[in-house]
Design brief:
binds glutamine, alpha/beta, Rossmann fold, three-stranded mixed beta sheet, 31% strand
């Protein structure tokens, strides 16, 4: 079965995610209209600028549509700004966007000197370290009981999963390593097999 993954294409690193997904054999398309969601088994919300992505999501009706998508049991993967968009709480009192994942996030959390850096990270569920690129990255300050921590970097949570929601602070699409994309596609495969895939 071919898995169809959409990449929300309002702003941010869209093409890079599409390339990473195609590399592992998934069908990947940019998503610009809410009507496209019905054809998908999973959705990636890319990195970029979360305030801008959130604003455009409100403008084009994506907030409600993506909440329904999640309620239908379809997987969503938020990377960097996409992680912020998924969070229920943004430190500093900023209005949450989708408010789906039970976690508090801190934007631009790694300080100025470490604005952008690369490292090898252990991620639960992936059998070898993956290369991770951090760019003005957020961190996950705390998670609710239903959230599983998948990766910690220097004491900070940088990847987590809540059921069919997956989030990471870094940019997995900026390396040749598609391991985390493969992890997400497997989530979408599983969801599709259990009856919540695209019709
Ligand atoms: N700093 C951005 C934000 O707060 C996220 C950065 C990224 O996606 N690379 O929205």
């Amino acid at each position: 079965m071919t898995i169809h993954i959409g990449v929300l294409a309002l702003q941010g690193a869209v093409e890079e995610h599409i390339r990473s997904l195609r590399r592992i054999g998934a069908e990947a398309v940019p998503v610009k209209r809410v009507e496209q969601l019905g054809e998908l088994h999973g959705l990636v919300i890319p990195g970029g600028e979360s305030t801008t992505i959130g604003k455009l999501m409100r403008k084009y009706g994506f907030i409600e549509a993506i909440r329904r998508f999640a309620a239908d049991g379809k997987p969503i993967f938020g990377t960097c700004a996409g992680l912020i968009v998924l969070a229920k709480r943004i430190e500093g009192g900023e209005e949450p966007h989708l408010g789906l994942m039970d976690m508090t996030v801190v934007r631009n959390a790694f300080g100025r000197q470490r604005e952008s850096f690369e490292t090898d990270l252990e991620v639960a569920g992936i059998d070898r370290p993956i290369r991770a690129v951090f760019i003005r990255a957020p961190l996950i300050k705390e998670v609710g009981p239903g959230v599983e921590v998948l990766s910690v970097y220097r004491g900070e949570i940088v990847a987590a999963r809540q059921g069919r929601l997956l989030a990471c602070s870094f940019h997995p699409e900026l390396t040749d390593d598609s391991a985390l994309h493969a992890y997400f596609v497997a989530m979408a495969e599983e969801a599709a097999a259990s009856g919540s895939g695209a019709k």
